[in-house]
Amino acid sequence: MHDIVEDELFSSSIIKDSEKLDFDYIPDELPHREDKLRILARIFKPILSNVPQNAVITGSVGTGKTVLAKRFCLSLVKTARKQGIILDYIHINCRRRSTDSMVLLGILNHFDQGFPDRGFSVQEMLQVLDRQLTRRKSHLIVVLDEVDALLHRSGSDLIYNLTRFSDEYSKKKNLISLILISQKNIFPMLDVSSLSTIKRSNHIHLDKYSRDELYDIIKQRVELAFHRGVVNEDSINLIADIASEWGDARFAIELLWKAGLAADQQHSLEVTPEHVRAAKAETYSIVTESKLRNLNKHQLLTLEAVAKRLYLDGTAYTNTGDAERMYMLICEEHDEKPRAHTMFWNYLKEIENAGFITLKKSGKGQLGTTQLISLPDIPAEILCEKIEEILPDIN
Ligand SMILES: Nc1ncnc2c1ncn2[C@@H]1O[C@H](COP(=O)(O)OP(=O)(O)OP(=O)(O)O)[C@@H](O)[C@H]1O
Ligand SMILES: [Mg+2]
Q1: Which of 62, 92, 180, 387 could, after both became Cys, cross-link 304 (CB 3.0–4.6 A)?
Q2: Domains of the chain
């Protein structure tokens, strides 16, 4: 019998190396982050003369904070080794480890896989860490990624202790350098003493990627991950156009990857714009959620009113009057006072600007000033569900 599973597993793919599309993959070169790598290298140069340093990296989602820190630290470790300096580099995700002891445990596990996960106080763990560094004669560089989660839950004690490690903690003057990463500005979350240990001039902010920058990042992935010539220029341009709305490289790479899968599924020898559009439709639900979270409560209620009206009527368009009546009902359901007509009108304009709806003047035979509202990109029912999911989190 024909083995479907075997067939699929061995069917040829236009993707040469899917690992290169993985979010954990660290490219040798980071297009449009070269200047930031250079700045990091300048900041951390004193490490080579045994002076620890700290830096803070901020920037919104998918701007390359994590990959920048990883690329930098791996290169730093390699270069230091050539100089006979042993550097230990540990990358901790504080969303997963959000207390001082969980972070320290993550650090100690790097040296000793079997280090017990309970029974040691923070102070004891710091002492064990000091002994490990003495034993290895190494300088430690710790990246605390998504550090706002740690600061939020546990405050800045650990950051203070790590930044003051060689001066106040370590008997043998062992050195620890830190890189703190966050989407948000973390300076207001640091207490006075940790603030004094982190130089504001060592703050690197990553801007959202422009359309052309995204183009270059995708081009690099195409060359790394796909067979030569299978992703056409139009498709790369379209991905860059779509992703530029968010400036998010992760979204761009995800689109590329899904477009590749869509092409494979059709046994196409080329990734075409149609595959990109299919990938967009699939990815849309994830992106929609993050875009929805940027709206305020009444913008969300307005959008839900439009979606619900369209869904219930099964039409392509609704008008402002019908949408506003629905808005009042939905406000009532949520114990919210409906805003005045002019405000409602503003909300409509705002959610149009955010790309959710389109407004156009109604044609002949209908009331003069009324506007027709449509929802081009996403099924109305799904949108209603998503908004209901999100509303409780929005104040
Ligand atoms: N300049 C770049 N060149 C090549 N790939 C990049 C670049 N910037 C980001 N990427 C890739 O985009 C994806 C997202 O980057 P990264 O994970 O570093 O974002 P982030 O800023 O840490 O986002 P988040 O705030 O969500 O953690 C990764 O796959 C990364 O390799
Ligand atoms: Mg990250």
Answers
A1: 387
A2: 33-206 (3.40.50.300), 210-292 (1.10.8.60), 297-393 (1.10.10.10)
